[in-house]
Amino acid sequence: MIHDLIRPELKDFVPYTTNQVSYRVKLDANESPFDLPMSVRKKLADIIMEGPELNLYPDTDSIELRKTLSAYWGVDMEGIVVGTGSDQLIQVLVNTFVGKGDKVVYPVPSFGMYKIDTVIGGGSTVEVALKEDNGFEYDIDEFISKAKDEKAKMVILCTPNNPTGNLLSLRNIEKICSMCPNTVIVVDEAYAEFAEESAVELLPKFENLIILRTLSKAYGLAGIRCGYSLSGKAIADEINKVKPPFNISSLSQLVAKLVFEEREEIDRRIKYLTEQRTYLAEELKKIEGATIFPSGANYILVKLPDAQGVAKELERRGILVRSYGDPVLSKYIRVTVGSKEQNDILLEELASILASA
Ligand code: PMP
C-alpha cells in the first residue's frame, strides 16, 4: 500500500548507505584522524559552563560564522550560505534551480549525492563518464556540449573528485562558466584544502558560479555537520529562500567558528595529511598487485585484483575502507589517508592479504 503512494521516480531509488560496523581503523569515509583541538575544547567548555543558551533557537543566518568565513576568504558575507554539511547545500541548490524534468549534468564516478538529490528533486540526470583509461580526467568540452545540448539548468563538478582524486583546472572551470552562462555551475571543493587550489578567485567574474566547501574533512568536523557555499549575492539570495530556517545548531555554529580561528593548527594538520598521502601512495605502489591513482585529496583510489574480496577481508581484520558495487569502481578500493599509525596498519594488512591471495 505505502509503495503505491510513493512518487514514481523514487520507487527504485537506491539510498545513500554507510557501513555501521565495529572497527580498529576507520579509513572509509574521508574523515580526519584528528579530533577537536584541545584549545577549542577548553574554550567550548568555558562557554558551556557560562550558559550556551540552548533554550533559544540558533541564529538562522549564522552571522558570526559567516563573518569569520568572509574575513578568511576576503569575500562579501552576503554571498555565503551555511548548510548542515555541504550535503544539505547540494539538495538546497537542486531544489532552488531544478524543476521537474530539468537537467542536471554531473560526472560519474563521483559523489553519489548529486544523483540522489537530482532524483529526489524531480530533476533529470545527465551523467558524463570520467574515463578510466584516461585516468578519470575531466573532458570539459564534453561537459560543455552536454550542458548546451540538454539545456542543463545545473552542472555539478567535483574537484578533487571523489573518489578518483584528480583535479579540474581553474582554466577549465573558467571555460565552462563562460561557455554556459545560462547554467548554474556548482564546483564541489569538499577536499580542496588538500590540493591548495580553489576556484574562489573566479567568483567575481561569474555570477553563475557557486562553490561548496565543508568543515567535515580538513577541519575534522564531520560530526557537527557544517558546510558552506560561496557565490555572488544573486545566487545566495535565491538559495536562502529554500534553505530551511535554523539549519545549523548553535553548538555547531560555535564550534565551526572556534575551529576556523585555529588556522595554525588546521594548517599543520593539512600539511601532515598531505605528507602522509605521499607516504601512503609510495608504500602502496610497492605492494604487488596494487595500482594507484594520483590524488589531490585525503584519499587514494587503489586498483586491486579482487577489490571487493580484499575490502571484506580488511573489514574482517577491523580495517574499514570504501568499496563499490558499480561495474567500473568494483575493481577499486578507496582508502582515506589516516595518521601514520593507521596507514601503517592498513599497509601491513593489505600486503598480507595480497600475499596470501
Ligand atoms: N561533497 C563531496 C565530494 C563529498 O565527498 C562529501 C562527503 N563525503 C560531501 C560533499 C558532503 O560532505 P558534508 O555534508 O559532510 O559537508
What are the salient characteristics of this protein?
357 residues, alpha/beta, seven-stranded mixed sheet, five-stranded mixed sheet, 12 helices, 12 strands, binds 4'-deoxy-4'-aminopyridoxal-5'-phosphate
Walkthrough of the structure:
The chain has 357 residues and is an alpha/beta fold. Helix content is 39%, strand content 16%. The chain is built from 12 helices and 12 strands. Strands 2-8-7-6-5-3-4 form a 7-stranded mixed beta sheet, with helices on both faces. A hairpin with an 8-residue loop joins strand 11 (319-323) and strand 12 (332-336). 4'-deoxy-4'-aminopyridoxal-5'-phosphate binds next to helix 4. Residues 30, 85-87, 111, 158, 162, 188, 190, 214, 216, 222, 227 line the site of 4'-deoxy-4'-aminopyridoxal-5'-phosphate.
Distinct helical segment count: 12
Low-confidence stretches: none
Morphology: globular
Number of strands: 12
Q: What proportion of the residues form beta strands (DSSP E)?
A: 15-25%
Largest sheet: 7 strands, mixed
Radius of gyration: 21 Å
Report the helical percentage.
25-40%
List bound small molecules. Answer: 4'-deoxy-4'-aminopyridoxal-5'-phosphate
The average pLDDT is: 96
- Note the gap between the termini: 48 Å
Give the class from helix and strand content and strand pairing. Answer: alpha/beta
Order of strands across the widest beta sheet?
A: 2-8-7-6-5-3-4
Series of secondary-structure elements, N-terminal to C-terminal: HEHHEHEHEHEHEEEHHHEEHEEH
